[in-house]
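Reviewer comment 2.1 asked that we show a complete input and output for one of the modelled complexes. We chose the zinc ion case, as it is the one discussed in the main text.
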Amino acid sequence: MSRSKNKGTAAETAVVRFLRAAGFTQAERRTLSGAQDRGDIAGVPGVVIEVKNCARQELPAWVAEAELERDNDRASLGVVWHKRRGTTDPGRWFVTMSGDQFAALLREQQGLPTPAVEERIVAYRSLGGRILRCLNHVPPEPGDDFVPVTSDDLPDGGLCTHPQCGVDVLIQRQGGEAA
Ligand SMILES: [Zn+2]
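Response of the prediction step:
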């Protein structure tokens, strides 16, 4: 077993012990992940936990990994539990999740219903359908021949046709940031 794998295993074991002591008595390391990874810790229903013990922090990749595993597991929450330098106590490590996940967690805690999925505009398309523009490349005056489209309008996906772009409009982040 490699050293980094050993480190990872030790961190997972520490998180499991911590969770059990914290009342999650079913928590255990997920040893067989199968074809689709579903996180490192099993036994906390509805939650996927990806444990990280790395010198270098790569939060964006880690959070994306946790969310993919959440989808694989059909869980409601996917988080990264990452070791903090200088302490072996997982209670003092950090747990990171996306804002979407945090809001879902808060809704659950406060007993709020999940709002209906909002139809979000992801791009604009010319009426002929030939031109598709991501939100960064909407023509300044879209006019009547450009109509907003949501992901429902793009069952096969779509790429921005701007010559310098080509971004997948279903993956681009809200607010027009580059993904
Ligand atoms: Zn574009």
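Residues 3-21 form the longest helix (19 residues). We note this here for comparison with the apo prediction described in Section 3.2.
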